[in-house]
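User
Take a look at the entry that follows and flag anything odd:
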Amino acid sequence: MGFATALLDLLLPQLCAGCGRPPALLCGSCAGLLTALPRPAWPDPVPTGLPRPWTATTYEGPIRSIIAAHKESGRTSLARPLGEALGRTVQTVLFQHGGQHGATVVPVPSGRAAVRRRGHDPTWRMTEAAVAGLWTAGMPVNGLQALRQRRRVADQAGLTVGRRAANLAGALEVPPALDVTGRRVVLVDDVITTGSTLAEAARALRAAGAEVIAAATVAATPRRRPAVKHGARR
């Protein structure tokens, strides 16, 4: 599916993945949403063990459509602009930590079934694009698929914060044959919602001896505060 969709993406006139207008992969307006200044993206509440999270933009409107088009519709050409946004976020993280060279960028792993269904691994594609951009910018970092799922997890959609954490507890691991001891790691993913996935990924890496300095994502789910009832004390 991924190859066929990518081929059609090359042969047919393109519509913007964000707003659906022709004639480009991303129109100028939607592409501009990916160039915002990276910012901290703490969820509320903060799950135990979550490394400091940074993000490039907000997961709403056209950004939701762009990420879905890359992840679920096989528009693999979007890996480059999404990877560039992710790379700028990783670069911000590294500047916050003294501009460390030689850091390792580790993506949250996709499940095997999801990779088969999608025909590609979208997070790894973005990671590769981000790492390539960082090398071009003079920041030699390494991309490494250092994590794998050790058991199946349920679909996270619709789960509460607590159930997400329980669903993911102990779900990831570093393969025993891979030595990450002493590596300084930036965790990456496409979206941060509750932070449970990144917290579990960080736990697995720390258990294997890595130092997780921060997390970076393309987008962060907006924090929704409950409405204040009329007449309620503020």
Residues 79-96 form the longest helix (18 residues). The chain has one domain: 2-220. The first strand starts at residue 39 and ends at 40. The chain is about 35% helix and 15% strand.
